[in-house]
Every structure is written in C-alpha cells, then in structure tokens.
# Entry
Amino acid sequence: MYIVMMSNVESIFGKFNNPNAKYFERIINKHIKHSIYEFSHLMKIFIYEHQRAKKNYRHIRFKNDVTNWTIQHSENIEHTERLFEEYTEIYGSTQYIKRKKAYFYNKIIPFFKENLKKYDYLIEMN
# Structure
C-alpha cells in the first residue's frame, strides 16, 4: 500500500523524462545537427573567401551568398529556440530540455560566435 502511494510523487526538480516526448526530442536533435551542418557550410564559404581576400580577389556572387547563408544561420538559431519553447509548453520542463538548452546556449552558440568573429569583416548586412 505504501509503495502504491509513493508512485504518484513527482520530483521537486521537474519531470525527469517523458516517454511521449521522444518523437519531439528526435526532431530537436535532428534540427540542431542540421544547423551545425549548415554552419559548417557557411564556414567553408568564409574560409574560401578569406583566402581570396588575402589576394585581393572577390567573387561577384559572394555578397549575395554570404548574406543568404548568414540569414539562414540566424533563422536556424531562432527555429531551435522556438522548438525549445514549444517543447516546454507541451511537455513541461523535463531533464532532456534542461540539458539540451544548457548545451545549446553554453556550447553551441559560443562556438558559432567564436568562429564567426574572425570573418566579421566579410559580413556586410546592409
């Protein structure tokens, strides 16, 4: 009888995991991986153009390409944040979302900013 009553007790730290949220968690993981993949493509463009800028060469389409990829990168970050908010609204603050948010904001975002800092002179957002 005592064990049955204790099974209804929830943690004071929030839900540890929610089996119904597995599909949504896979969507978030897939989107973050996709964002990192697209960021790596953006970095390839910056590295290539940085090498060309050293030699005073510039591509005609570079400004358009880099603007599009930079906007896409910003949209990926915003979309990830919206996914975090939507997950929290539907499933509450689970251990998964707390860890994923902490990892995203403490590791991935600083990684993006640190790597883009070197190529700030190539980004012209007018």
About this structure: Residues 66-126 form one domain. The mean pLDDT is 83. The radius of gyration is 21 Å.
